């Protein structure tokens, strides 16, 4: 019997769905057309850019640079330009700040006679690590050293937010706010019982190094003693350094801060749960003030702006736009190129926020082949990943050095495992004392599920022409010979890793093995062991690269080598920096969703990286799950 196609209800629902789709597309295109026409019309009429500042076409005297840090501090944007434009315009917490932009703005403000202070708003600030936090803190201290004031304010400060606030001359907290210092912790889920006992999945781990603990959660129910020992060693170093920096900034004693954290429940109970009062009593903050009280105070100290009914101020985006307009673009000067390697290292071409073996290599090659580029800085903020793309990038670094262009690595929050692999061949390696690095080791993980299939009455059987045929079929138990093959590959990869480190660092494999074996180190601990050359951030690395290239000060430009932003994306970014257009973008907030490029959470399971490479079932991984 033929299927009936005349169901009136079905036809009605299909018609409604098609109408909704047509309406969505129509609304989007009309909205987009309106935005673009408005933008270009405004440009034609010469509407000046502003950020809520009266007469923002030219910066006025006694202006405060307001750094509202709600968002994530990154080395390189991970979101698309249109997403960033709407996040900036709407104040979305998904907003991203590039460390380089903040450092540039603070350095420019220090020398700018029209900027009299920085107002630091810490609510919503987040950063995945401590090295970038220290670089930003150092920039703020340098600003203060120039004789200008920093005022910090927050409604609630966790310890990374408070670290920045503590660098200010004055720290103010909302009367109903809190400063929460709790120490460093790193806890993971362990799946052995669920996978092996409950589901019947057999997990086989192949590794070299008792400290290479990245895949332990799939074979254990709790951290191994070696993992606990190594993690506590570097985490204590970071925590003690954190307390020392806070104590120095606030003129406190480290012992008092330690006592405060250790006795936090008792101290909170003593002030009847008033966390703001506790912060004030402990001298973590200078006073408790509401936002209105802080705003009034700043208006009295600086200059009152009639148009905004507040103190005279300019935001980060508007200030950066003015600095870009005021500065000369590249004028044939020599360049120190910077290539950012941020995120997991994987194969092929990847978008910013992930290190692609092909895409990152292409950027390094572009810098090497540019006659204006005299030196290269590789900024690494990566926990590692696959071995092959790591080796691809390392080779490009070696070729750049062979071409006569010095290479300096600047390590960010983490440059471990594969992140160290791509770093080791540089002429000089710079790291922050709180950088997480090392983890020189390799592992492989194989899962098979014959017991899981047996639970539902399914069995695997067949025949092959050789003993190896079908050995990597997940429905079959792993043959011991195949397991030995995988371990041999992992052993070879480890020997290759420590051999290359030894060659790059002027050592021998046996000595490198004693500080490798998958063990993680802080930047300070790594320097003591010869894995890092100098302490410093990306600015220090740039200066070192210029010096190695024998470039005189002020004779070169710093140029970030990155994929080009399209014209349409640039239009949206420019609009997001303009207060007049920002309101318009807020009106059209749903547009990105209609466009299909909505902001998505980059939430991944701890095993997602295993699915990123097809082909050979045998894959060596140089990865460190060691971020904070």
CATH-assigned homologous superfamily of the domain at 329-564 and 610-623:
2-enoyl-CoA Hydratase, Chain A, domain 1
What is the CATH C level class of the domain at 329-564 and 610-623, in words?
Alpha Beta
Helicity level, as a percent range? 40-55%
Q: What Rg is obtained from the alpha carbons, in whole angstroms?
A: 28 Å
Gross morphology? globular
Structural class: alpha/beta
Largest sheet: 8 strands, mixed
Q: Count of DSSP E strands? A: 27
What is the fold-level CATH name, i.e. the topology of the domain at 329-564 and 610-623?
2-enoyl-CoA Hydratase, Chain A, domain 1
β content, as a range? Answer: 15-25%
What does this structure look like?
The chain is an alpha/beta fold. Among the domains are: 63-79 and 97-185 and 243-325, 2-enoyl-CoA Hydratase, Chain A, domain 1; 329-564 and 610-623, Alpha-Beta Complex (2-enoyl-CoA Hydratase, Chain A, domain 1). 44% of the residues lie in helices and 18% in strands. It contains 23 helices and 27 strands. The strands form eight sheets. Strands 15, 18, 20, 21, 22, 24, 25 and 26 form an eight-stranded mixed sheet that branches. A six-stranded parallel sheet has the order 11-8-6-4-1-14. Strand 12 (304-305) and strand 13 form a beta hairpin. Helix 2 (81-90) packs parallel to helix 21. The longest helix is centred in the first third of the chain and has 38 residues, at 8-45. The radius of gyration is 28 Å and the shape is globular.
Describe the structure in brief.
With 628 residues, the protein is an alpha/beta fold.
